[in-house]
Design goal:
The complex is a heterotrimer. By secondary structure, chain A is mainly α. Chain A has helices spanning 3-25, 39-66, 69-101, 109-129, 134-165, 181-222. The longest helix of chain A has 42 residues, at 181-222. Chain A is globular and about 65 Å long. By secondary structure, chain B is an all-alpha fold. In chain B, α2 (24-43) packs antiparallel against α3, α3 (51-79) packs antiparallel against α5 and α7 (166-190) packs antiparallel against α8. In chain B, 50% of the residues are buried. By secondary structure, chain C is an alpha/beta fold. Chain C has helices at 43-50, 72-77, 94-104, 110-120, 136-148, 166-182, 222-245, and strands at residues 3-14, 17-28, 32-36, 58-63, 79-82, 154-158, 185-189, 202-207, 210-216. In chain C, α3 packs across α4 (110-120) and α4 (110-120) packs across α5. Chain C is globular, with a radius of gyration of 19 Å. Classes of the chains: A mainly alpha, B mainly alpha, C alpha/beta.
Chain lengths: 223, 226, 246
Amino acid sequence: MSMTNRVLLGLSTVGMLALCWMLMTIPREAAQGFVQKIFYVHVPVAWVAFLAFGVTGYNGLRYLMTRDLKHDRIAAASAEVGVVFITLVLITGPLWAKPIWGIYWTWDLRLTTSFILWLLYLAYLILRRSVGDRDRRAQLSAVVGLISFLDVPIVYFANRVKASQHPAPVVGGGEDSGLAPEFLATLLIGVFAFTVTYVLLLRLRHQQSRIEDQIEELHLQRS
Amino acid sequence: MRSFWGVVAAVLARDVRAEWRRKDIFTTIVMFGLLTVVVFVFAFDPARHAREDVVPGTLWTAFFFAGILGLNRSAGRDGQDDQISGVVTSPADRGALYVGKILSNLVFMAVGELVVLVFAIFFFDLDERHLTGMFFLLLALGTLGFLAVGTVFAVIGQKTRLREVMLPVLLLPVLTPLLLGAVEGTAIIFTPGPDEGLGDWVQLAAVFDLIFLTAGFLLFGSVLEE
Amino acid sequence: MEVVVEAQGLSRRYGRFWALRDVDLTLHAGEAVALLGANGAGKSTLLSLLATLARPSEGSLTINGLDPTKKAAAVRGGMGYVAHHTLLDDALTAEENLHYYAALFGVSDAAERARQRLHEVGLGERAQDRVESFSRGMRQRLSLARALLHDPELLVLDEPFTGLDAPGCRDLATRLSAEKERGAAMLLATHQLDYVLQWADRVLVLHLGRKVEELPAQTYDDRGWAAHLTEVAAERAAVATVRGKA
């Protein structure tokens, strides 16, 4: 494992351990009790899921501009890692919602946006699996990734308009619920830990796909 | 500049002319639109559910699903006899090709939507006074947004192993905000009383259209090339 | 005579398979090269690279001095492509198809040119008829008219004689050699050598994606080629067996 990856692994481990420790030591939140601690996982993984999709969209654009397969590899790797994170969002959401609000799911602003993001990820990955030719796959994925990424803010705003016209309870509190200092620190540690983990996984997955492409090249040289 | 609009006009003329003679895209959109409405009538009995709850969603679902089939037929036909290679090997401006395709698909969808609307007025006992200018504006914006992304994705779909199936998989998630806006806006229009909040939805649809028409215009060439 | 096509080390792969490998080719204005080879030898691949339908995986290609991957529109404006498929919409008339392509190619006085080209390929009477009523041979002729509409400097033809009867083949051969006289450069793949050898300049033979022969049309000997290919095939089979055992 390369030096950079070792460092990332170290940081990720430290971050996760710190998060666990903080989760065990911070006081329970007044209204929601123990389950509220899922928030410190739910929010960071959501942040990473959106970040990863941005990386996919951006690298798709770069591929279209340069036709360098490196960008396609990064875009694909980010999507594969990101889909895991968005799935975690959709799992931790209901785990949090059910004990506290009594429902598994609600079509509120954030959960709806997360769900659509999940669908966009899946569509992207399904597309990649249905194109055999390497260059064509890169080309078409880049276009879809870019368009899908442009869609995300629009999904958010559309649901915000809906929320403003049909007020309904929001899972996890409204947009302006504040956080006491030790809660904020925990959240930031969570964001740090999961972001570093994402970068590590992205790099590993990208290296793997680079090696796959290199093997293809070797086969070609032989034939 | 003249050849840009020349290409747009040529694509529009060719698509409309060919469709006038074959009528299969139109048939697809109308039949499937009507059938979707019928399915929803049985799924949500208009006698038991409030009309304003059911009709907007039914209409827009019918338009989108029928539109997907129409787009697939249109893209499939462009692949026949490898006509798409004829277009790719020409120097025609890719943006012009995109605009031409959007316009011709718009014509087909508009006709299909009007037929479905007439049908819906009859079966849902819709008050014609609800079909105001604002309604048609929303209809146009929604259809345009649908086509802005759909035209690009339809070509992509043809190039994959899943072919026709790929289009709805790619398109529907991206269109959800537009669908939301169209249905909510239509519901506001059809509900008696002031059209409060309609402006927000129309604005959303317009922004959607602007963003994706621009993106499609710039990206269509990438999708056509090998 | 200006160079219309300059290709060096041209290669194209599909996944792990090299459809075309390391092909050099130079075409001057007014030169016609017949492309020969068994099915799967790479003829269609080479033609699609020149037709800008695919990008080379390796090697360089310039058409009229331009790089098709960078100046695609300019290259396409001077290139005409005839394929296995007709590239025509059969719900439209012959005339309508040509008008459509004229607009795509930015051809001025489209109506006049279309009329002229239709007449040249012997479809003048059928201009207003829908392509769906045309025979295979007629469609091929219309497809050629479509490719010639913008007076291209380069003609790329993939088995243009397919589906034509003897008079049709003779007609087409006359047409193509006339284009050659006009100064067009031409690369055409065909199995119908008899109609081509009299007026083509060179013959290029592909086998398993590689160029195995390029020689003047007059010195080309059909039997020699067949024997050579059998030899090459046997050699490769032997190599493959050795590799398989290793």
